[in-house]
Amino acid sequence: MLPAEAVEAALLSRRSVRAFRPDPVDRALVERLLDLAARAPSGTNMQPWRAYVVTGAARERLCDALVAAHDEPEGAHESEYRYYPDPFPEPYLARRRKVGFDLYGLLGIARGDWAAMRAQHARNLRFFGAPVGLVFTIDRRLAIGSWLDYGCFLQGFMIAARAHGLDTCPQAAFAPFHRVIRAQLPLSPDEVVVCGMALGHADPGAPENALATERVPARAFATFLDGAGE
To answer: What stretches of the chain adopt beta strand conformation (E)?
Structure first.
Protein backbone atom coordinates (compact mmCIF):
# COMPACT_ATOMS: atom_id res chain seq x y z
CA MET A 1 0.00 0.00 0.00
CA LEU A 2 1.32 3.43 -0.92
CA PRO A 3 1.79 5.93 1.95
CA ALA A 4 -1.12 8.10 0.77
CA GLU A 5 -3.38 5.05 0.56
CA ALA A 6 -2.39 3.95 4.06
CA VAL A 7 -3.17 7.37 5.50
CA GLU A 8 -6.50 7.53 3.70
CA ALA A 9 -7.37 4.03 4.89
CA ALA A 10 -6.70 5.00 8.51
CA LEU A 11 -8.73 8.21 8.16
CA LEU A 12 -11.68 6.52 6.49
CA SER A 13 -11.78 3.53 8.85
CA ARG A 14 -11.56 5.57 12.05
CA ARG A 15 -14.87 5.56 13.89
CA SER A 16 -16.19 5.89 17.39
CA VAL A 17 -16.37 2.29 18.56
CA ARG A 18 -18.77 1.63 21.43
CA ALA A 19 -18.09 -2.04 22.19
CA PHE A 20 -14.65 -3.61 22.56
CA ARG A 21 -13.13 -7.04 23.00
CA PRO A 22 -11.17 -7.51 26.25
CA ASP A 23 -7.92 -8.38 24.40
CA PRO A 24 -5.05 -6.50 26.07
CA VAL A 25 -3.02 -3.86 24.25
CA ASP A 26 0.73 -3.83 24.81
CA ARG A 27 1.89 -0.90 26.94
CA ALA A 28 4.80 -0.20 24.59
CA LEU A 29 2.35 0.21 21.71
CA VAL A 30 0.21 2.67 23.67
CA GLU A 31 3.34 4.68 24.45
CA ARG A 32 4.31 4.57 20.77
CA LEU A 33 0.89 5.91 19.77
CA LEU A 34 1.25 8.77 22.24
CA ASP A 35 4.72 9.54 20.86
CA LEU A 36 3.31 9.64 17.34
CA ALA A 37 0.38 11.84 18.37
CA ALA A 38 2.79 14.23 20.08
CA ARG A 39 4.13 15.17 16.64
CA ALA A 40 0.97 17.28 16.32
CA PRO A 41 1.56 20.99 15.76
CA SER A 42 1.06 23.39 18.65
CA GLY A 43 1.49 27.13 18.92
CA THR A 44 5.16 27.92 19.67
CA ASN A 45 5.57 24.17 20.31
CA MET A 46 3.88 24.38 23.73
CA GLN A 47 2.62 20.76 23.51
CA PRO A 48 -0.34 21.30 25.87
CA TRP A 49 -1.46 17.69 26.14
CA ARG A 50 -1.23 15.38 29.14
CA ALA A 51 -2.47 11.79 29.25
CA TYR A 52 -3.32 9.30 31.97
CA VAL A 53 -3.44 5.67 30.79
CA VAL A 54 -5.44 3.25 32.95
CA THR A 55 -5.54 -0.53 32.65
CA GLY A 56 -6.20 -3.45 34.96
CA ALA A 57 -7.18 -2.72 38.55
CA ALA A 58 -6.59 1.03 38.16
CA ARG A 59 -9.06 1.11 35.29
CA GLU A 60 -11.63 -0.88 37.26
CA ARG A 61 -11.41 1.41 40.29
CA LEU A 62 -11.83 4.49 38.12
CA CYS A 63 -14.76 2.99 36.21
CA ASP A 64 -16.54 1.86 39.38
CA ALA A 65 -16.23 5.34 40.89
CA LEU A 66 -17.45 7.01 37.71
CA VAL A 67 -20.47 4.75 37.30
CA ALA A 68 -21.42 5.32 40.95
CA ALA A 69 -21.23 9.08 40.34
CA HIS A 70 -23.33 8.69 37.19
CA ASP A 71 -26.15 7.31 39.37
CA GLU A 72 -26.27 10.53 41.38
CA PRO A 73 -28.99 13.11 40.62
CA GLU A 74 -28.77 14.90 37.30
CA GLY A 75 -26.78 18.11 37.59
CA ALA A 76 -24.57 16.85 40.40
CA HIS A 77 -21.57 16.87 38.09
CA GLU A 78 -20.66 19.52 35.56
CA SER A 79 -17.77 19.96 33.16
CA GLU A 80 -15.28 22.77 33.73
CA TYR A 81 -15.81 23.89 30.16
CA ARG A 82 -18.75 24.09 27.79
CA TYR A 83 -18.67 21.50 25.02
CA TYR A 84 -22.11 21.85 23.42
CA PRO A 85 -24.19 24.95 22.60
CA ASP A 86 -27.43 25.59 24.46
CA PRO A 87 -29.72 25.64 22.61
CA PHE A 88 -28.51 23.69 19.57
CA PRO A 89 -28.94 25.68 16.33
CA GLU A 90 -29.50 24.02 12.97
CA PRO A 91 -28.06 22.19 11.12
CA TYR A 92 -26.24 20.87 14.18
CA LEU A 93 -29.36 19.82 16.08
CA ALA A 94 -30.54 17.64 13.18
CA ARG A 95 -27.13 15.98 12.91
CA ARG A 96 -27.04 15.34 16.65
CA ARG A 97 -30.50 13.82 16.64
CA LYS A 98 -29.78 11.60 13.66
CA VAL A 99 -26.70 9.98 15.14
CA GLY A 100 -28.55 9.46 18.43
CA PHE A 101 -31.60 7.91 16.78
CA ASP A 102 -29.39 5.72 14.56
CA LEU A 103 -27.37 4.45 17.53
CA TYR A 104 -30.39 3.78 19.71
CA GLY A 105 -32.13 2.08 16.80
CA LEU A 106 -29.27 -0.40 16.47
CA LEU A 107 -29.45 -1.05 20.21
CA GLY A 108 -33.23 -1.44 20.23
CA ILE A 109 -33.72 1.57 22.51
CA ALA A 110 -37.05 3.25 21.81
CA ARG A 111 -37.49 7.01 21.67
CA GLY A 112 -38.40 8.29 25.10
CA ASP A 113 -36.88 5.32 26.94
CA TRP A 114 -34.79 7.57 29.16
CA ALA A 115 -33.73 4.77 31.51
CA ALA A 116 -32.22 2.76 28.66
CA MET A 117 -30.59 5.86 27.20
CA ARG A 118 -29.06 6.71 30.57
CA ALA A 119 -27.78 3.14 30.97
CA GLN A 120 -26.18 3.33 27.53
CA HIS A 121 -24.58 6.66 28.45
CA ALA A 122 -23.12 5.07 31.59
CA ARG A 123 -21.26 2.58 29.37
CA ASN A 124 -19.06 5.51 28.35
CA LEU A 125 -17.68 5.51 31.86
CA ARG A 126 -16.48 1.93 31.50
CA PHE A 127 -14.71 2.84 28.28
CA PHE A 128 -17.24 0.63 26.48
CA GLY A 129 -15.34 -2.42 27.72
CA ALA A 130 -12.02 -1.40 26.16
CA PRO A 131 -8.97 -2.77 28.02
CA VAL A 132 -7.20 0.60 27.86
CA GLY A 133 -8.73 3.85 29.03
CA LEU A 134 -7.16 7.24 28.62
CA VAL A 135 -7.97 10.52 30.32
CA PHE A 136 -6.64 13.66 28.67
CA THR A 137 -6.12 16.95 30.50
CA ILE A 138 -4.92 20.45 29.72
CA ASP A 139 -3.40 23.19 31.85
CA ARG A 140 -6.22 25.58 32.78
CA ARG A 141 -3.84 28.53 32.45
CA LEU A 142 -3.66 28.08 28.68
CA ALA A 143 -5.94 29.79 26.17
CA ILE A 144 -8.23 28.59 23.37
CA GLY A 145 -5.36 28.19 20.90
CA SER A 146 -3.99 25.30 22.95
CA TRP A 147 -7.39 23.62 22.82
CA LEU A 148 -7.24 23.82 19.03
CA ASP A 149 -3.79 22.20 19.17
CA TYR A 150 -5.21 19.49 21.42
CA GLY A 151 -7.66 18.49 18.69
CA CYS A 152 -4.73 17.86 16.35
CA PHE A 153 -3.11 15.68 19.01
CA LEU A 154 -6.23 13.61 19.65
CA GLN A 155 -6.85 13.04 15.95
CA GLY A 156 -3.23 12.02 15.48
CA PHE A 157 -3.56 9.47 18.27
CA MET A 158 -6.72 7.97 16.79
CA ILE A 159 -5.29 7.74 13.26
CA ALA A 160 -2.08 6.18 14.57
CA ALA A 161 -4.19 3.65 16.47
CA ARG A 162 -6.01 2.70 13.27
CA ALA A 163 -2.70 2.32 11.47
CA HIS A 164 -1.83 -0.30 14.10
CA GLY A 165 -5.17 -2.09 13.78
CA LEU A 166 -6.71 -0.62 16.93
CA ASP A 167 -9.97 1.22 17.50
CA THR A 168 -10.89 4.19 19.66
CA CYS A 169 -13.75 6.28 20.94
CA PRO A 170 -13.13 9.86 22.10
CA GLN A 171 -15.45 10.58 25.02
CA ALA A 172 -16.48 14.02 26.25
CA ALA A 173 -18.69 12.17 28.76
CA PHE A 174 -15.76 12.06 31.20
CA ALA A 175 -15.40 15.84 31.53
CA PRO A 176 -18.33 16.42 33.96
CA PHE A 177 -16.86 13.88 36.39
CA HIS A 178 -13.57 15.69 36.91
CA ARG A 179 -13.92 15.64 40.70
CA VAL A 180 -14.29 11.85 40.66
CA ILE A 181 -11.34 11.53 38.32
CA ARG A 182 -9.22 13.74 40.58
CA ALA A 183 -9.91 11.39 43.47
CA GLN A 184 -8.61 8.44 41.43
CA LEU A 185 -5.78 9.92 39.33
CA PRO A 186 -2.90 12.24 40.31
CA LEU A 187 -4.16 15.38 38.55
CA SER A 188 -2.77 18.72 39.67
CA PRO A 189 -5.16 21.59 40.49
CA ASP A 190 -4.10 23.26 37.23
CA GLU A 191 -5.38 20.39 35.07
CA VAL A 192 -8.78 20.44 33.34
CA VAL A 193 -10.23 17.13 32.14
CA VAL A 194 -10.65 17.48 28.37
CA CYS A 195 -12.04 14.02 27.57
CA GLY A 196 -11.59 10.31 27.96
CA MET A 197 -10.82 7.80 25.25
CA ALA A 198 -11.33 4.06 24.86
CA LEU A 199 -8.61 2.07 23.10
CA GLY A 200 -8.65 -1.56 22.02
CA HIS A 201 -10.07 -3.94 19.42
CA ALA A 202 -13.67 -3.48 18.28
CA ASP A 203 -16.16 -6.25 19.03
CA PRO A 204 -17.41 -7.10 15.53
CA GLY A 205 -20.54 -8.77 16.87
CA ALA A 206 -21.83 -5.75 18.78
CA PRO A 207 -24.79 -4.12 17.00
CA GLU A 208 -23.74 -0.60 17.97
CA ASN A 209 -20.51 -1.04 16.01
CA ALA A 210 -22.55 -1.20 12.81
CA LEU A 211 -23.24 2.52 13.19
CA ALA A 212 -22.05 4.40 10.10
CA THR A 213 -22.10 8.16 10.58
CA GLU A 214 -22.42 10.51 7.65
CA ARG A 215 -20.22 13.44 6.63
CA VAL A 216 -21.16 16.32 4.38
CA PRO A 217 -18.83 16.64 1.35
CA ALA A 218 -16.30 19.43 0.95
CA ARG A 219 -18.51 21.20 -1.57
CA ALA A 220 -21.05 21.76 1.22
CA PHE A 221 -18.69 23.59 3.57
CA ALA A 222 -15.69 24.78 1.53
CA THR A 223 -15.47 27.87 -0.66
CA PHE A 224 -12.86 27.77 -3.45
CA LEU A 225 -11.57 31.09 -4.79
CA ASP A 226 -9.13 31.14 -7.68
CA GLY A 227 -9.30 34.75 -8.78
CA ALA A 228 -10.31 33.85 -12.32
CA GLY A 229 -12.01 36.70 -14.18
CA GLU A 230 -10.74 39.44 -11.89
So the answer is: 50-54, 132-139, 167-171, 191-200
- Distance of alpha carbon 38 from alpha carbon 44, whole angstroms: 14
End-to-end, the C-alpha distance of the chain in Å comes to 43
145-195 per-position pLDDT tens digit: 999 999 999 999 999 999 999 999 999 999 999 999 999 999 999 999 999
Structural domain boundaries, residue 152: 17-83+125-214
CA angle 175, 181, 187 (to 5 degrees): 100
Q: Give tens-digit pLDDT for 198-211.
A: 999 999 999 999 99
Q: Is residue 97 situated within a structural domain?
A: no
Residue 88 counted as domain residue: no
Count of the separate structural domains present in the chain: 1
CATH number at residue 175: 3.40.109.10
